[in-house]
Amino acid sequence: MATHVHGSLSGRAPSLSTGSPSPCLSTQNDVNHQSADWVSVHEKICQLLIPLRTALPFYTSEEERRHGQEQTISREKFLAGLTQSIAQKFLSEGKHEDAIPSALHSLKFNISVYGSCSVELVPAFIILAEASLGLGHLAQAEEYLSQAQWIVLKKSHGNNAIQSKLHRNLGLLYAAKGNYEDSLYHLANDIFFACSAFGTNHIAASGGYFHMANVFFRQNRMDIADSLYAEVANIWYTHFSHMIDIQFQALMAPAEIDMLAEEMEPTEEVLDEGQRAEASQMLNAILEMREQGPRPQPAKVVKVLHTLALLHYLSQNVSKAHELTQTILEMNKQLPKQTPFAEESFQRLIKLIKSKERPFYSK
Predict the structure, then answer these.
(1) Contacts of 262 (CB under 8 A, 6+ apart)
(2) With contact defined as beta carbons under 8 Å apart, do 39 and 30 qualify?
(3) Residue 259 to residue 268: CA distance in whole angstroms
(4) Backbone dihedral region of 201: left (phi > 0), alpha (psi from -120 to 50 degrees) or beta?
(5) For 163-201, what is each residue's pLDDT tens digit?
(6) Cβ distance 133 to 125 under 8 Å?
(7) CA separation for the pair 311, 319 (Å, rounded)
């Protein structure tokens, strides 16, 4: 299932000499020979594939022919985006094997629309690499990332978000190989490009910090790892607190909010499924590390628990959010000094939970 790439992750160009196939062409041939009948994706796009599999009609004019081509391209663009979304959803659910067929379909449709060396292919390559890493197929992951990296290097205008994802997966690949120096290099680039694309301390950068912390943890450089884990928790806490503030203001002034609903709707932030999964994975891993560490860190545990409570509330799991707030209240009593880091945010969360599930707080 892997593509055949000539070159390496060092950034050197693949060989394009006579008799050695172009990396882009080899990818196209590889994708074109994939079956379209995988269970994980076929049932979702079967009906949409029918117009593309049907023989083209005889066009009586140039205008009809052009219109037919435009319709085909439009369908392929739609299917490329749809299959990429399906693949990304499988990844967020940890279903790495199911993500691969969907990503290959996306790759195939993008090749048909944009050509075999287009930057539009890079997201599919990155998904394929991430899925391969999840399955422990390091050689396949390396080939997909080589292909993506070669395309990005050729496109000087490659966007920062794509560069961030590329470097993150390169960092994970090198970490899996035990090459921690190169892993940290790529994860640092991941953070740089994520901050360039979305702003400093954006949740898009949290993954880079988290995986970098994991590398330092493996190297037993615990002070650095601890500070990076704290940074991850702070990023998600700040993001969730902002979203909670919006909901709290709506709760406190419903009439005014209703009058301005149309104006507020475009700015309201919602967590998508991938973000929820990513945040949950990181925060629960940090919580486990904090709770099982050799040194008790109750204040830091409380901070992670608070962030998880915010996440569960925003994910509409109000009962779990309530459970965590009660744990936090009990832990806070045992601290030598109650943690004031988020008193206002915490009280707002309590009030929001009360508004949703009053039975929790009934006497």
Answers:
(1) none
(2) no
(3) 15
(4) left
(5) 999 999 999 999 999 999 999 999 999 999 999 999 988
(6) no
(7) 12
